[in-house]
Amino acid sequence: MVFLALSAQLMVGAAGSSEVFPGQSPKLIQNVILTLFFALLIVLLQSAVSPVAKPKHGWIEVAIALLTCLALISTFASIDSDVGAVNYEDAGQTPGLLAFYALGNLYMSYATARGAHLAWTASDHTRSRARLSLRLASAGLAVNCIGTHIPRVVSTSGRLLLGIDPIPGTETWTTPILAIGIIAFFVGIGYPGGRTLVVKIRLWFEARRDYRKLRPLWSALSSQFPEIALFPPVHPLREMLHFRSMRFRYYRRIIECRDGLVSLSPYIADLGDDKTIIRQAELVRDAIVRRSEGRGPVSEASVIAAPAVSGMEADVQELLALACAWRKFSDRVGNSAV
């Protein structure tokens, strides 16, 4: 919602917007929305800085915003209907437009300054990565306050009250500064979510890679024990099209591989002194052949790919190592047979 309110400052003034939104009302609606949303932003930041603050502080912000909205509506209603464009760049010396933009930018000066202060203060109260996010958002608001809204207040007030422009050219150079501030604000607001998205994408690719690494071992075990598989086996090419629930499928395959090894363990011969992962892969293959030929178990149970330490990650790494060794051993045996 804040994104729509802030970006409206640029979109409404874009070329061709008058054809999409005829008349003068879009500018009033845009400024009212901005006022209300900045009031909401300040209230939210206040609650983050002082969770035990009195509720009346929030109501004060809402009251200020509502009074500003009423003033904007009244001022806008006084503008001559013969006035064409109502963008800030077209205000010129029109009293009604100057008063409208003086009021609007006066509130925005207060709101951005207050918001920047609260966002920076809130960043001091957190030790997480949100600190950088809040400080960048604070910097964006400060840029808008100092580089756009305050100069526009001075310019419009001077033209309205004195008939001269104390800061010439604000209709030109303040807009790029406004865009810079908006970008900085949204980069700050979006940083935690963007960083989380990057982490999720990385984990997704890692899960997909390891999911495919486990396939040869999983296929051999699930062919012997179909009951371990939650999902029916599919062709490798079709498996490449699996995109949804990848991490669930990945961890499910890990569990199924471990279940398959447990079920196969009575058919696995004793490891002896050679406990290398290649030797374990060889024994797993021999056990599968033994069971396929209908021969009986050779031991009560044999532990294969046992992790050196407890924990899910250690177990996963052992299974991945066994899967890689299984693939290499199977390729070697297949080449020897040829």
Explain what the structure shows.
The chain has 338 residues and is mostly helical. The protein contains 11 helices and no strands. Helix 3 packs antiparallel against helix 4 (55-77) and helix 7 (170-224) packs parallel to helix 9. It has helices at 2-11, 17-20, 25-49, 55-77, 95-124, 130-161, 170-224, 236-239, 246-264, 277-292, 312-337. The mean pLDDT is 84. It has 2 domains: 2-168, no CATH class; 200-337, no CATH class. This is DUF6545 domain-containing protein. Keywords: Membrane, Transmembrane, Transmembrane helix. It holds the Pfam family DUF6545. The chain crosses the membrane at residues 28-46, 58-79, 99-120, 132-153, 173-193. Residues 204-327 form the DUF6545 domain.
What proportion of the residues is helical, as a percent range? over 70%
Helix count from the secondary structure assignment: 11
Kindly report the average pLDDT value: 84
| Poorly predicted regions | none
Number of strands: 0
How much of the sequence is in beta strands? under 5%
Overall 3D geometry?
rod-shaped
Q: How many domains?
A: 2
**First CA to last CA: what distance?**
66 Å
Comma- or semicolon-separated keywords:
11 helices, rod-shaped, mainly alpha, 2 domains, single chain, 338 residues
